[in-house]
Amino acid sequence: MIIAIPTLSLAEPILANVHEICAQRGWEIKSASLDQCGKMLLNNSVEMALTSPLGYGSGVGKVDYRVIPGPCVALQDYTNAYGIWFPDGGRGLATYTSAEPGSFATLAGRMVMAEKFDVVLADAPEGSEGDCVIGPVTGDSIPAIDLGEEWFDLIESPLPLAIWVARVDADILEVESTVALFADQRQLERHVSEMIPPTSDRMPREGKILYRWTSDVEEGLDAALHTMFYHQMLPEIPAIKLYGKD
User: Does the predicted TM-score (pTM) go above 0.70?
Assistant: First the structure.
């Protein structure tokens, strides 16, 4: 069995024991970006991957996948994980740049801008900075738009970032119990509260990062797949096929 795991710090709680458990089972691990994990799954380089909704959706009409309803990563409301910045204050929005231009998180940022603010963003010309920047929050940089918050306000469901997906023809006996063993079961979610000055007259924004599969996460995945199709990022809407149920 060969699996792919992402180099994604947010996914560390659900990969806490992955190397130990895979060594016990004789499984091979490949590491790559979140969306590259999906490409490896599509190309049959691996049999199972922790990948994004885009990685799952990219297999529609090509490969029969199953989503493993277990440990995952999803943003619910304010999480300060991914955001959108406006270098010029948001005037004349038409283009964007991103350190992860083809990633699902970047696509989600573009979809939020289109759905909530009626702004369709194109790639900025090579070598230039876009009217907005979409990407992960690092250091003390504060985005103008929090992606998890805006998605939750728009969809009323969490934004799934990383889900376990397996090829239906893979040898994946006891896969649900195995991916559960990969995760730190003591951390099923992490609450996030906005840091604001003590003198502020408003309440801090709050949310949480979910590390477990729920019906709300499934609804968020379904919404993400439908929205990507609507914006022509997928050729058709993939059905959500759950391992052991479909």
Answer: yes
